[in-house]
Design brief:
Length: about 450
């Protein structure tokens, strides 16, 4: 019998220490045999299609099992972490969670989710159903895993080839400084060099992480953090200067989320849309730039350099996507149903259908080969996938990731006014460093 003990008091203390305040207890699905609770991210880019997908999967699951799905959603990484924390503390909540890959270490550190056995993997179609690279952040090792890959989203840039050609740009930038220079060259006459989502809850930290990795600062190394180092500060300076000093982005982008930044690029208003994925394909295919865009790798040489330093990491993308985890507070019957649900939505035909609707790259090997063979634009996504690097597999990473975004959030009033002072940035980085060290210490000491 699989143990249904949720987590020990130490882990509860650890999560409480992460700053959970005022969270309501979630009513568990309990032993109700007719309901499976599934927590997923909301989809603001394709909301109608997403609702239709949920309805169709729900009907199919009822047909196959007789059990209905109760869908629950989170709208941001902050909500994602809070929902996990709430369930950890209350010992009840959704049976299945879809998590961003970077939050898998946080989920793992709680002990709150099922450690996958060989039988569990067989129940979802076997490990060999999935592309090997997508298993890279399912757990700290190949024998200690909690997460089944659902979608893959290597990050890259969408490029308006027509705008670049009009300005004599024939090669893609490979350094962050070259990207800034190309953005300056293509800004004017109602268009901007870059389309950036400064107010997005997920995008900003990826720029900071990537530039820092390229410079040799992995941000987290074991139980130590370097959030306030010069490479990280240079990354923020570059990111903020695009709007405050270089003026290569629409000033309105200070308030944009990812969907708004994508819409601006799709409307032909920007030369580059960095930090996007194949999830943009449905929008771009029906846009003004449908015949004019391509994808390119993100730069991998840090700001201020013409080549990557010897300790720099060629991180073209985070190892990104969505994973599925099963709560171990659920009954054994619910856990079996959870694995049946996962098996359903990771089938080749379901993953191909999802790709055609939402653009996320399949983790199912058969489906990945099929969609890659059908569109030459996907070659860049495959290359970005091979150059992707995982974020630190540490339970503190989710908190650190949020701190990196919070530095941007706190800086938005300055960006709107046209300037983020160095003193303010340094203070915010010192605060983020202090928080990171605290989170790492709690993880190292088991939450005490």
């Amino acid at each position: 019998m699989r143990s249904r003990t949720f987590i020990g008091a130490v882990a509860v203390v650890a999560f409480a220490a992460l700053g959970l305040q005022g969270c309501a207890v979630v009513d568990g699905s309990g032993e109700d045999p007719d309901t499976l609770r599934v927590m997923v991210a909301s989809n603001t880019t394709f909301p109608k299609q997403y609702t239709a997908w949920q309805d169709r999967i729900g009907r199919e699951f009822v047909r196959e099992t007789g059990v209905r799905i109760q869908w629950e959603t989170y709208a941001s990484t902050q909500e994602e972490q809070t929902d996990i924390q709430t369930s950890v503390i209350s010992g009840q909540g959704p049976d299945v969670y879809s998590l961003g890959t970077t939050f898998t270490p946080t989920a793992y550190s709680t002990g709150a989710f099922v450690r996958l056995t060989d039988a569990d993997w067989e129940a979802v179609g076997g490990k060999d159903r999935f592309t090997p690279a997508t298993l890279g952040i399912s757990g700290p090792s190949s024998s200690e895993q909690i997460a089944v890959p659902l979608h893959s989203r290597p990050y890259m840039m969408a490029v308006n080839e027509k705008l670049l050609a009009a300005h004599g740009i024939t090669t893609m930038p490979t350094t962050w400084d070259e990207l800034t220079a190309d953005a300056e060259a293509t800004t004017g006459d109602g268009t901007y060099g870059l389309s950036i989502a400064y107010a997005d809850g997920a995008d900003p930290w990826k720029f900071i992480w990537g530039m820092s990795q390229n410079a040799g600062n992995t941000i987290v190394d074991g139980s130590h953090a370097t959030v306030d180092g010069p490479a990280v500060q240079k990354a923020y300076d570059t990111y903020f200067d695009w709007v405050a000093e270089d003026h290569v982005v629409d000033p309105a982008s200070v308030g944009w989320n990812d969907a708004q930044a994508l819409a601006a690029f799709a409307d032909g208003k920007a030369a580059f849309f960095p930090m996007t994925t194949v999830g943009a394909l449905p929008t771009l295919a029906a846009s003004k730039v449908a015949d004019d865009y391509s994808f390119a790798l993100l730069p991998t040489v840090p700001p201020g350099a013409t080549e990557r330093p010897s300790d720099g990491v060629e991180a073209a993308s985070i190892l990104s996507g969505d994973n599925l985890v099963v709560a171990n507070y659920s009954s054994e019957a619910k856990q079996r149903l959870s694995f049946r649900f996962i098996e359903l939505i990771t089938r080749a035909d379901e993953q191909e259908r999802w790709f055609r609707t939402f653009g996320d790259f399949p983790t199912n090997q058969q489906a990945a080969r099929t969609v890659a063979d059908g569109d030459p634009k996907l070659a860049t996504s495959l290359q970005a996938g091979t150059l992707s690097k995982p974020t630190a597999f540490n339970g503190a990473w989710g908190d650190i990731q949020l701190s990196l975004v919070d530095v941007v959030t706190q800086s938005i009033p300055g960006l709107k006014a046209g300037n983020v002072s160095q003193a303010a940035l340094e203070q915010r980085l010192r605060s983020a460093q202090h928080d990171a060290e605290g989170s790492l210490a709690r993880q190292k000491n088991g939450g005490l």
